[in-house]
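P.,

For your records, the input lines for the assembly:
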Amino acid sequence: MSARVGRYVRMIATPGDGAALAEGMLRVAEGMRAAPGCELYIVNRTPDEEDAVWVTEVWTDEASSEAALERDLGEAGLGAVLPLLAGPPEYIELTPVGGPGLT
Amino acid sequence: MSARVGRYVRMIATPGDGAALAEGMLRVAEGMRAAPGCELYIVNRTPDEEDAVWVTEVWTDEASSEAALERDLGEAGLGAVLPLLAGPPEYIELTPVGGPGLT
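Structure tokens returned:
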């Protein structure tokens, strides 16, 4: 059995574009419903930082995660939000080990 | 309708105690299955930081989150892991807006 992988992705929008970035990432997230191995792809805003969007990802394995990223960049979703970013996304890589919300 | 709330909790164990902290937090997480309003309580380790544990929480509303925290500190779970912590946990407060994994 391959191990689950996850990450927190921190994206910062150009000033004033936090809501637009969140909307764009919600469209990306809707597309991820069809991605094999996608367990979580939750878009969050934060009360502490108006232009930040955090995405919580969990995948059944590394291969699923990589396949979805390649597909998504090639098709629509993430490409459409890139112009809203003030800089490159930052990642906290995770190894999910259990708890409510994992099937 | 009240808004969902979430957070990422970063906990650092005393040196060498990352695995023990993750095990303790898994016990806390199992207890959260019975907590009203708990949608996610996922315990993660990270390949980048051996003694770190991250918890991904999503609650149906702020009141559920607060009620569970009070109950848990009073009963067993979190109290048992406190001696493993090198310092106070850090929190990134979130407002989940959507995506796969939210019901």
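Two observations worth noting. The helical segments of chain A are 18-32, 62-74, 77-81. Residues 63 and 92 of chain A are 18 Å apart (CA to CA).

Regards
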